[in-house]
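Dear colleague,

Thank you for sharing your sequence with our group. We've completed the structure prediction you requested, and as agreed, I am returning the results in plain text so they can be pasted directly into your records. Please verify that the sequence below matches your submission; if there's any discrepancy, let me know and we will rerun it promptly.
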Amino acid sequence: MIEVFSLKNHKVVDSFTLYNMIGLKKTHYSRWMKRLRDRGGRDIDWFVSDELLKLNRKIKNRYYFTLDFARAICIQYVTKESNKLIVFLKEEQEKK
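Please find the predicted structure tokens below.
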């Protein structure tokens, strides 16, 4: 499904990958990300990591969402993909 990383004792997912998996238009990613940065708190709901940035440099800034925050985002969208992601993220969060 979506790759889950560990960062600062939190399980996180890549925001751009999540955005694509939900099925949103790639051209609106920057605007979408700006809204979410304002909604969540840095190093609480979302992170910027130089270490994880090296994995893929297609985007200038790589943001990583906690699983809780990612699930809250997926709940906003009514698509098959977002429903699958909600279930997957909940299961990943319950794993230790």
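Summary note from our side: The chain has five helices and four strands.

Kind regards,
the structure core
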